[in-house]
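Here is a typical sample entry:
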Amino acid sequence: MASASAVLKVVLEETARKSIEEELTKCADLARSEVLLRYPKQFKGPAPDADECKQETKSKGRRVTWAMRLGIEMHEVARACAEERLSKVRPGRFSLDQRYRPDLATGQKELVSAEKEQALEKSGNGGELKGTLKPDVVIHQGDPLNALAVYDFKFPCVNSDSVPEWNQYPDGHPFAGFSQGEMYQKFIAPLVARITPRLGVVHG
């Protein structure tokens, strides 16, 4: 009987995972389409090419590349979409943009509230957030400290059939030598994945 219950739980978890990933994939596709439609005459084609991605533009009063601007805007659309869709399929059991502070010595972690994050940035002490992790989507059972899965949206500027790699932390960073995905898996959740328009979910 216990064995049957265990099997049933796995099936339910697999079903839940697929449902979550389907919704997040739709959000990634929606975000890319919606944002590119905002700029119908900005690029030679329906999407920017490599040179256009490097060109500078203004976003919220500062100079950025089109790659950065489009990525920020796509993340904003994807986040709103994820909040709406996950609220229906997994109410109360997910977090968006939750920041964690891992302790490399003990292997433990703590949550950093959005209020504390904003206060640090407002006071000019945003540097204290270095050494923290902030995935796009965290799936849990009600407690983000006990997460089941982490998903990050990746929006390459140029259309491509290759999956974007996890960001690598540079020399001098507290997480140097690790990738973003490795840190997520080490400190936040056993399942990590990237979600990219057209390509969908890539685990690991």
Notes: Residues 2-98+135-203 form one domain. The radius of gyration is 18 Å.
